[in-house]
Amino acid sequence: MKKYLLFTFLIFQITFSQVKQEIGNILGVKSFSKEISLYRGKAFVIKEVLVLGANDDVVKFELDPIEAAASGELTTLYYYCEELKMEGIVFGFYGDYVNEHGLLLQGYAYKNLDKKQGLELLQKIEDVKAENADYLRENSDNHNIYIAYDDLTILIYRKDQAYKYRVFWNNFDAEWGDFEFKRTKTKFQLKVK
């Protein structure tokens, strides 16, 4: 009987470990890339941003990945539609989030900012960081600042002599490195028409 229970326990452990590992590979935060963000971002931009309604018009638009955070939790996309005179930046959030019932889930969601909002937010982050640089350097382990913009909250702090940004939105908590932030800001400014 003990051998049977031990065998059953081992089979259960092996099976459980394999299933858990597969789920991690499929849904894991690290598996999201700029390519996946671009693919899923197209559907978001069509359905949520460039909404036309029920007509037969052909709509041309550009959608380019700007930068993905090293954490894999945040990707930025630039969109432009000449016909509708619309352009902006889309933030793609990936990873763990807590739903309205308090359950920890993995998923993704997109946040749209038009051109004016995108430029304004990126500049605001840069300005606030520069204005508070001395404070953040004084005690990089304990000094933090945060700003709110629309329904986004951005926490700015220093870790290992580098600036870090945590972006909170819709129960997502994504980390953005200083390198990725600067590249996003620069590339977005160069792309806007």
Secondary structure layout:
Elements: H1 2-27, H2 34-49, E1 62-68, E2 74-81, E3 86-98, E4 104-114, H3 115-131, H4 133-138, E5 144-149, E6 152-159, E7 162-169, E8 172-177, H5 178-191
Antiparallel strand pairs: 1-2, 2-3, 3-4, 5-6, 6-7, 7-8
Helix pairs in contact: 3-5
Describe the overall structure.
The protein has 5 helices and 8 strands, in the order H-H-E-E-E-E-H-H-E-E-E-E-H. The chain is of the alpha+beta class. Strand 7 and strand 8 form a beta hairpin. The longest helix is centred in the N-terminal third of the chain and has 26 residues. It is globular, with a radius of gyration of 21 Å. About 15% of the residues have low confidence.
Question: Which radius of gyration do the C-alpha atoms yield?
Answer: 21 Å
Distance between the termini: 74 Å
Number of E strands: 8
Structural class: alpha+beta
Return the string of H and E elements. HHEEEEHHEEEEH
What do the pLDDT scores average to? Answer: 82
Residue runs with pLDDT of under 50 for 5 or more positions: 4-31
Strand order, sheet with most strands: 1-2-3-4
Can you tell me the overall shape?
Answer: globular
Determine the strand fraction and express it as a percent band: 25-35%
